[in-house]
Structures are given as C-alpha cells and as structure tokens.
Amino acid sequence: MTDFKGSTFTWLGHAVVQITTPKGTEILIDPFIEHNPKYPKSHKLPQKLDLLLLTHGHSDHIADAASVAKKHGPEVVAMVELAGWLKSKGVQRASGMNLGGSYKVKDVTLSMVEARHSTGIDDGSITLYGGEPVGYVITIDGGPVLYHAGDTAAFLDMQLIRDLYSPEIGFLPIGDYYTMGPKGAAIAARYLGLKTVVPIHYGTFPVLTGTPEELEKHLTGSGIEVLKPKPGEALR
C-alpha cells in the first residue's frame, strides 16, 4: 500500500495533477482545463496556488496557464524559453529553469529533468520555440518523492533520474501515439525504481488508446503498484 505521508494527489484528467503537501503548499501541473474533456467540471482549484509547473509548450499542457497564473497567483516554473513567453503574456511571476537544476520553494524541492518529446508554442498563426520538454521530480519535506514525466517516450537515462533523486511515485503517460504506451511506461517504471505509478495522458482523445489495465499487465510480478483514480478523485 502506498504511503503518501500526509500529501494529497488529485489527477484532473490528461496530464493535469494537483498536489497538496502536508504543510499545505498547493501545486498544479500542466493546466489544461477549459477544453479538457476529462477535467472534472465540479472541481474547484484552491483560491491560492503556490506553484504552477509546466512541462512543455503544447496547448494540451499550457492552454490555461496564463489565466490560472493571473487568477490564482502562483509562481510559475517552466523551461526558460516557455517562462519568457508567459511573461510576454502578462504573467508576472514566471521562473525559468533548465535541465538538471533544482529549486526550493517552501517545503518543496523541484528538480527539472529530461523528457523525450517535441515542443512548440502555438501563438496565434505562428508556432514558437518553447525550449526543451521536461519532467519534474518533486521532493516534499517529510513526504514522498514524486516524478511527473510530462509527455515522454521511455528512455534509458531514466535510470539517472532514479540514481539522482530516487522517486517513489510516478505520474507517467500511457496513452501511446503522442507519448509512450503502457509497455513503454512499464519499462520506464522499472528504470525509475518506482514503487507506485499513477497513469496519466490517456483516454482524453480517441487516439490515446493505452489503458491502466494494460500497464498493470506489463508490470505483473514487478511489485510496482498501479493506482487508477478517476479524474477528480483525491489520493491520500
């Protein structure tokens, strides 16, 4: 059984994840809300967010980033180029990081790690370079070490993430087509040394065909737990 050590995690459909630490720090990752068919419309974000983390510039991850930042007042953390673009859209508190860096905010240490994907920001009629796609390792004081993979394929250097940060709980995409599918995610979970996987980035659109049940099948005998929350269901 997974020990969340006083933290709460809520998957909000697609790659959107909300985290509340034992000390009450509120984190939101990849806000795709208004046009996300899997976002639970009854779910209300906290009035005040502390951190808004963005993995890359595709619209199904940042579509609501500027509006959420302006309404809920978080510090936005993103790759430097993406953070710069958000500042041009009127987001005041946008901190640009880069791969390998770590940053402490309250009771949370953020580490920006590699992802294998493409990136780009749709800005009207043009597509802008959004920097490299990333994932985040989130180390909570007195809590578990989390890994949000963003959009990625499986890659061998996930073992470096294991060796550097020892993540326990991983939010991994399983939908296939645009990211790794269940088999790739199972390999990634083993490379990362995870104890628990929460599948994300599946079922939002017809082309995302991977399922948590397929992931469980590929993890048979590994001892890695697969949690299958519904969008909006809090894990504690």
Descriptive notes:
The structure is a single chain. The termini are close together. The chain has helices at residues 59-62, 65-72, 80-88, 158-165, 182-192, 212-218; strands spanning 8-11, 17-20, 26-29, 51-53, 75-79, 94-97, 102-105, 108-114, 121-123, 126-128, 134-140, 145-148, 169-173, 196-200, 225-226, 234-235. Helix 5 packs across helix 6 (212-218). By secondary structure, it is an alpha/beta fold. The chain contains 6 helices and 16 strands. A 7-stranded mixed sheet has the order 6-5-4-3-2-1-16, covered by helices on one side. Strands 7-8-11-12-13-14-15 form a 7-stranded mixed sheet. A two-stranded antiparallel ribbon has the order 9-10. 46% of the residues are buried. The model has no long low-confidence stretch (mean pLDDT 97). The protein has one domain (8-230): Metallo-beta-lactamase, Chain A. 20% of the residues lie in helices and 28% in strands.
